[in-house]
Amino acid sequence: MKRQQTLDTLKQEQPFDLLVVGGGATGCGIVLDAAARGLKVALVEKMDLAEGTSSRSTKLVHGGVRYLEKAVKGLNKAQYDLVKEGLHERGVLLKNAPHLSNRISFVTPLYKWLDVPMVFTGLKLYDILSGKMRLGSSRLLSRKATLERFPMVKAEGLKAGILYYDGQFNDARMAVALARTAEQRGAVIANHVEVTDLHKENGKVSGAVVRDCLTGEQWTVRAKGVINATGPFGDRLRQMDDPATKPIITASSGIHIVLDKRFSPPENGLMIPKTEDGRVLFVLPWQGHALIGTTDDPAKITEHPKASDEEIDYLLRHVGKYFDLQPTRDDIKATWSGLRPLVADPDAADTSNLVRDHVISMSDAGLLTIVGGKWTSYRRMAEDTVDQAVAGWNLAPANPCETNHISVIGGVNYKSQGDQQLTTKYGFEKDVSYNLNRAYGDQAEQVAELSQKNLAERLHPKHPFIEAEVLFATRYEFAAHAIDVLARRLPLALIDKAAAAQVLPRVIEIMAKELGWDQQQCGKELELATERLHVAL
């Protein structure tokens, strides 16, 4: 649906049953859940879909190995339940988005014999908690087998390794897929639309005043209920509702660095079980590169946090301790920082000890807020939120939750070997076909058909993304800025910032033709994207 048609619908088809504010993992999950239940629902997002925290994760779908360790050592039932729920939801996500997710094997190198039984037992328990959703069976690796699986790992002093399995996914494209799936079911999705005030009638929240960030136009969207799903920024909307309300959200920063593929084999990740300050680090293959993360430090809540020199040095230092191949700053292809929204706990000693569970609350004026959680549990968070919305606002008739069984767009008729057909039919090189099949699933042929309009060339010779993907993102995937395409519809800016900068003019050229941008607008797009690429994504 064209953007203007979407905005016209947002203005005219009122009141809605629900207005969801926030287009990250939680908001996109909620809008799909609500639409699938037959509710009339709209979503607005100030920036792009998943522009904040939800596109800056470690790209893992997991129960949380670290949480399990804390659950066992501290006899902490909350952490235990969080792991068990996460492992169930991991299985649901891999089933419902097969094109955007995959199983990944991890090697944990061990340098002390005393660590072997403890780590092995913990990862076996991780398997057991997965139940029928288990992805594989953990097993002990000899020193030789560990080095064969992950040749870069430091050989000196290595005693053994543990192999275990977890899930991996494309977070930004998952958010877009959820939004598009919700749109198929009648939801109205509007990114780059900001809530400037809450609309109230008789002291109760009954909608929001919104502003189109592209044109400045303002209007009121009325709804029976408003859901605050703005992640780390949740307190802003809560204080818009009641200036005297106390903040309940704190945040920690998690940064990632991307290195060349020589730092990670294509089939295996590395889990470093304990750093100098007791954290867990991952090195994993992602988009043909090595993704390393993450940190966990208290952070200010800002829209585009930047990875600090100290955080980058922290990751490089710890990887260097476990690698014979020593990475330096010159090896870094890209960096990014994301904010984890945490439910504030005044008794917690540091942010790494806060339980990443979710909390749903209703204000006196009727603003429903969902905070906390993580990507893996997005669907369960959405289900709980819509359940409370239906009960709190008496939204009848509303069907039971169906998202446990809803495949997202691209996943319904996805074929894991579909890339072979793309190569045969359209003549794409193998890496291009593979990327199209995994990014778009059963919609890959739609992108391939667009490529026949002189858009079959690679955007950059070293990467598998083609020009037709830019047009597809603009026409069908809500992309309104060039950086929306380069950082989220395609992950190019997240794996190679220099390459993203090189292809930026061509991306703007394709979008300008589709959207009717003049020379002045093209200049603004170049300026905006350049700022994002060089300052912070």
UniProtKB/TrEMBL annotation:
Residues 17-378 form the FAD dependent oxidoreductase domain. It comes from Malonomonas rubra DSM 5091. The keyword Hydrolase does not apply. InterPro entries: DAO_C, DAO_C_sf, FAD-dep_OxRdtase, FAD/NAD-bd_sf, G3P_DH_FAD-dep. GO terms for biological process: glycerol-3-phosphate metabolic process. The lineage of its organism: Bacteria, Pseudomonadati, Thermodesulfobacteriota, Desulfuromonadia, Desulfuromonadales. Keywords: FAD, Flavoprotein, Oxidoreductase. PANTHER family: GLYCEROL-3-PHOSPHATE DEHYDROGENASE (PTHR11985), GLYCEROL-3-PHOSPHATE DEHYDROGENASE, MITOCHONDRIAL (PTHR11985:SF15). The keyword Lipid biosynthesis does not apply. This is Glycerol-3-phosphate dehydrogenase. Transmembrane segments: none annotated. Its cofactor is FAD. Belongs to the FAD-dependent glycerol-3-phosphate dehydrogenase family. Residues 401-521 form the Alpha-glycerophosphate oxidase C-terminal domain. One of its GO terms (molecular function) is glycerol-3-phosphate dehydrogenase (quinone) activity. Gene3D superfamilies: Alpha-glycerophosphate oxidase, cap domain, D-Amino Acid Oxidase, subunit A, domain 2, FAD/NAD(P)-binding domain.
